[in-house]
Amino acid sequence: MTKSASQTIAPPGQRIGFLIYRAGVLVARAYEARMRPLGFAPAEIGLMTYLASHGTDHVRAVARSIGVSPQTVVNLTRGLEQRGFVARAPSPSDQRTVLLTLTVEGRAALEEADTAAQAFDAEVAAVLGPVGAQAVGDGLRTLLSAPPWDAE
Predict the structure, then answer these.
(1) Which of 29, 43, 85, 89 is the residue whose CA sits 20 to 30 A from 121?
(2) Low pLDDT (below 50) residues in the chain
(3) Phi, psi at 21, each rounded to 5°
């Protein structure tokens, strides 16, 4: 490596994209480890949390909100429906559109998982401190609401 190259290429720890990637991997693994004993994958929790907060909605809206493809939502729904946590029904206005609803059993299971999620959030916030946790949360919400690039 030439001296000029080492002066122009920042190390990974100075690249915000790489730091977000590394933190994302670290946090995702830890979050998944917290949800696994409860029998959930993080994407299932995302789907159920969306339905708990938004009510009945169609597959495309859920997919858009939790950042997965509609086919992934369909696949997740199959497993959650078999467990009695989510119900599917055709839309009364368009039979081609599938509506998803969180069941009473699903809400009860989600409440248990949400307790674990809140505890995990508290662990992360303790590491970041109150000001850091607020800043990180605000920054991530901004990135997720209107990314300036197309990641697909």
Answers:
(1) 85
(2) none
(3) -60, -50
